[in-house]
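stuck on whats below:

***
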Amino acid sequence: MVNQERVNSIVIIVRNLIEARGISDNLTEEIIDELIKEAIGFVGINCIDEELEACRRDLKYRYMIKSIPGSKILNDYNQDEWYSDIKDDIQQKFWLRYKDYLIDEKHFSPNVVSKLGNETLDQDLMNYLLNPNIETDTPVLRRGLVIGDVQSGKTSTYIGLICKAADAGFKVFILLTGTIESLRKQTQERVEEGFIGIDMSDPNTGGKRVGVGLDNKDVFATALTSRNNDFTGNSDKIAVALKNFRAVVFVIKKQKDVLNKLTKWLINLNADTLTKKIDLPMLMIDDEADNASINTSKSKEDPTTINRLIRNLANLFTRSNYIGFTATPFANVFIDPETTEEMENQDLFPEDFIVSLPTPSNYIGPEQIFAENGEYHSQLIYITDAGIEESDGYSFYFKHKKEWEGELPESLTDAIYSFYIVNAIRDLRGDKKTHRSMLVNMSRFVRVQKYIRSEIENIHSTAYREIKFNLSHDFTESMKSPVLEKIYSLWKRHFSDTEFDWDDIVNALYEAVEPIMIKVVNSARGTDKLVYPENESIRVIAIGGLALSRGLTLEGLIISYFYRNTCTYDVLMQMGRWFGYRRGYEDLFRIWTHRASAEWYAEISKATEELKSDMRLMNENKMRPKDFGIRVKNDADDLQITAANKMRNSKDELLVNSYFGNIIETPYLIFDPAIQKKNFRKIQEFIETLVSDGIPLERQHNSYGKDRYMIKNVPKTKIADLILKLDISRYNGHFKPYQLTNFINNCDEPCLDMFDIALIEGTKSEKKIEIAGKEIVAVFRSGCSASVEENRLNIGRRGKLGGPGDGMTGIADVDGRTAEEIIDVARERFRAAYKKEKKKDFKENSTYPGITWFRYIKDRKPLLIIYLVDIEGQENQKQVFDKFKAEMDGIPSVGLAIGFPENERASVFEYTTYRANKAYNWFELNDILAESEEEE
């Protein structure tokens, strides 16, 4: 068994060595191993392999966690960065003690905390809030939305934001939790521990110090709610002036009576008698902002009660900020951005900013679990012994009634026994003081949840007795017990590849199982309380529904049993409490669920990633939340994005991918020299094979544009095969290889039988490439940027690979009409369509977008355009690009574009449905192209 004290002492020595040598930013696994050996030499002790591994895990977590960048969309990209201007003059009392608390007490990675403070908060969120010190004649409300992954640390982000805001001069903080008291209480505890430093419910004078308050320094903030009390009962009898506090917090539920009581109290005791406004800076944080805050009323001017009360509360202050935090923004983006401009009637649409938080590299999310190639996909176990409805023949089924009583699935017993095993393994790893939880989410009915608890208690008491009295190192004798035989078979199947053998499990199993409690956690009165004390290990099987799916954190969640028939993106994601951080037990957690649920989660993962990709594109094109709505992928037959009444301001948007009349390209490349070189070799091999087969590569003269090297009349199957052989960046939203080649291969239109290929050449690059005996001058693209974490290379500053005229290549004389005449007709048709849509003329000297040469030309072949690109990075990424170019060995990067001619049938072979809010119009990107200048 691991001696945790020995591990801790070695880790402390290594940390001191790292700090003394200033090498925290340059650590590798090899360097960490050398430092561990050095530390062991200092203390002169011997460590077993498991202790060495525990040291490695701890140190890698502290120093090698990176973050995948988030993104942001702003209403004003040129706004004053007021916080950056005054930050150096602020005494950051609240933030500095919270930072120390996260690292020293909550064991956050210092890298992650540093990024939170210096980037997410300092550079982004604080600058997007109103300056608390501004003077204004009229009340101002700033509205934003912060998107974080489920169980990814949103709470620590908004408590950090509260700390920074209080340091900067904000006075009043209103934190809206969900609709369940247990969740409000949990949030109150975290605010007290991270910001206030006092347990406000403690009856002792001055309260009991907790969290950041344990430093015994002065306390500068207070709360007018406590762990025991929301703003209810006699709370409105408190006679205090908010202006007398340095910072005051209200942690309240989103319930009608609570919101009304707080609003009336604020007006009566703190508002100006004439204006009915409070002249103080206020920050309102709406945790789980898609729950109970959305206006679900059909009339814009008659919002639902909770939505209206939140607006009223926000509008009480002269300098207000409403910031929604959510992991499931699918409802928020459907809020109508066009409600009346009068401040009192504004909806909560995030008009000023939307920020997607960074994702730490140790975060385990849906993609890692539910994608077939996910790192943890093997830890997903399908439930096959329960049904959909009663007629399926199983005792338990999705569509059970609230009176259901029957036999539980055998797979639930497997999950419970697995919980025993992983508890033993964690104890053997030296983690005895950590909390452990198992989630059972099978029914929304409280009565059924209580019945499930009684059945689990029977399963547990039987197993407990077998472990206590019959488990021994006599394997044959132990296996006479069906319970122990089952536990052994589960260990053999799922956990025998850990560092411990069966005899180790036998030694630890009884002590691991003995403290386990079984609780029902729901929103009903009298429900069990789920509390995780700081100084003792709680081991619990938690049974529930809504309370377990909205914000409640299950500490040390390691086994999940989820069998629900919920079919909306946001509720499913919230129910996924197994997402998050599994430090030291990433290999142990298991999830039992229905196959359909797993497929839904995989679908949600794709939708969420596409939403984030859209946000990045919107940011690069300086789009605003109001002008450019977010789309959400919704092409799963059985899966709805969010509740129907939350989507009343959205409509179905069909992105038809027949591709006829379109040109698409790859402005994003994979930032990996090995992949880029491989792509070039595939292109080179492809062209040389065509030439050897008698299809020539020749320079074609064009009287209407530049001469190009072309290969004509290439069978479409060869084009499709080439596309599938190349590695295309997933950030190219429209250039999806499998979808694209499916269209090419399955389309029976004769106009797609043969393709032309064009190699675009440049004039500014000195790089020349020989292919099939021809010398091709590379296309030079400057101002490129790269995201190493996302493995993404952005071509140019405008995210554009080709020039608008590249698609003219291959237009030829046909049926007595010259190429020039065909092009003139296309221009005329584009101008007519532009005027019809935009209600104005196309500017005479503007460049026609590349789509013109395909959408308005029928008599041409489809065109594959190949770009051999000489990359030059932005100045601030010189080191990154110098390394990239050195590893490329003079070989160019490869980009593609493909265009399809107009077709009267416009056959649709693949399509995707999106829900889009009123602002969304994806093809407005064409306007950007229309205004762009020719680029080689």
User: Anything to note?
Assistant: The first strand starts at residue 67 and ends at 68. The chain has 26 helices and 32 strands.
